[in-house]
Design brief:
The complex is a heterodimer of chains A (117) and B (112). In chain A, the strands form 2 sheets. In chain A, strands 2, 4, 5, 6, 9, 10 and 11 form a 7-stranded mixed sheet that branches. Chain A has 117 residues and is mostly beta strands. Chain A starts with a strand and ends with a strand. Chain A contains no helices and 11 strands. In chain A, strand 7 and strand 8 form a beta hairpin. Chain B is mainly beta and 112 residues long. Chain B is 0% helix and 51% strand. Chain B is built from no helices and 10 strands. Classes of the chains: A mainly beta (117), B mainly beta (112). At the A-B interface, strand 4, strand 5, strand 9 and strand 10 of A face strand 3, strand 4, strand 8 and strand 9 of B.
C-alpha cells in the first residue's frame, strides 16, 4: 500500500453515462497525476495538478474528461458520455515537488478499472 | 485480479538466477529514468530510478544501467524470487511537469 487510495476500484457503466472517480493522495504531496492504462500497455499521462492548479493536460484528455482538485488535496476525474473506448484502468499518482520542473518519485494508487458496455 | 499486459514480451527465469530486463527510450532530453513493477490488480510500484548524469545505480538486489549513447536502460535483478513475478515498465521523465512516459512492459515469470 503506497498511501494513495482510489475509489471505486471497479466501475461498470453503460455507454453514454457519466462516471466520476476519486483519488486521495499521500497527505503532504502537492502534486497529483492522472494516468490511463489499457491492457498490454504502460500508463499514459492524462493530466497533473500542483496543489489546486491544473498545470498540464494531455491531448488524450478530450473535452468529455474533466479533472479537479478543489482544495489541493483529493482529486476527481469525471468522464461524460462514456464511450467503449474509455474502458481502461485509471491510475492516480502523487509526489512531493519542490519546483515545477523538479522530479520526485511518484507513488501510484491501485487504480479504478472502468468497463463501458 | 485482472491481468496486466496480456501480450507483452515475456522473460522466464528460474528462481535464484539473475534477470535482466531491457528498455529503449526515445527522448534524449529525459533527466530521470525509473523502473516500476506492476502486479495484477495493482498500480505500478517504484523500484529504482537513475539520473541522466549517472550510468549505474544499485539498490537492494536491483541494479539499473543507463547507456545514453544508444538510449538504453536495463534492470538487473539478482537472485530472482517468485515474488518478483510481475510486469516491469521503464519510464522517463523530461523534467517538464514531472510527467512520466512509460515504455512497453516486460512480463517476468519466475519458475521454481
Amino acid at each position: 500500500d503506497t498511501g494513495v487510495s482510489q475509489n471505486p476500484r471497479h466501475k461498470i457503466t453503460k455507454r453514454g453515462q457519466n462516471v466520476t472517480f476519486r483519488c486521495d493522495p499521500i497527505s503532504e504531496h502537492n502534486r497529483l497525476y492522472w494516468y490511463r492504462q489499457t491492457l498490454g500497455q504502460g500508463p499514459e499521462f492524462l493530466t497533473y495538478f500542483q496543489n489546486e492548479a491544473q498545470l498540464e493536460k494531455s491531448r488524450l484528455l478530450s473535452d468529455r474528461f474533466s479533472a479537479e482538485r478543489p482544495k489541493g488535496s483529493f482529486s476527481t476525474l469525471e468522464i461524460q458520455r462514456t464511450e467503449q473506448g474509455d474502458s481502461a484502468m485509471y491510475l492516480c499518482a502523487s509526489s512531493l515537488g519542490a519546483g515545477r520542473s523538479s522530479y520526485n518519485e511518484q507513488f501510484f494508487g491501485p487504480g479504478t478499472r472502468l468497463t463501458v458496455l | 485480479g485482472e491481468s496486466v499486459g496480456l501480450h507483452l514480451p515475456t522473460l522466464s527465469v528460474q528462481e535464484g538466477d539473475n534477470s535482466i530486463i531491457n528498455c529503449a527510450y526515445s527522448n534524449s532530453a529525459s533527466d530521470y529514468f525509473i523502473w516500476y513493477k506492476q502486479e495484477s490488480g495493482k498500480g505500478p510500484q517504484f523500484i529504482i530510478d537513475i539520473r541522466s548524469n549517472m550510468d549505474k545505480r544499485q539498490g537492494q538486489r536491483v541494479t539499473v544501467l543507463l547507456n545514453k549513447t544508444v538510449k538504453h536502460l536495463s534492470l538487473q535483478i539478482a537472485a530472482t524470487q517468485p515474488g518478483d513475478s510481475a510486469v516491469y515498465f521503464c519510464a522517463e521523465n523530461t523534467g517538464t511537469a514531472s510527467k512520466l512516459t512509460f515504455g512497453t512492459g516486460t512480463r517476468l515469470q519466475v519458475t521454481l
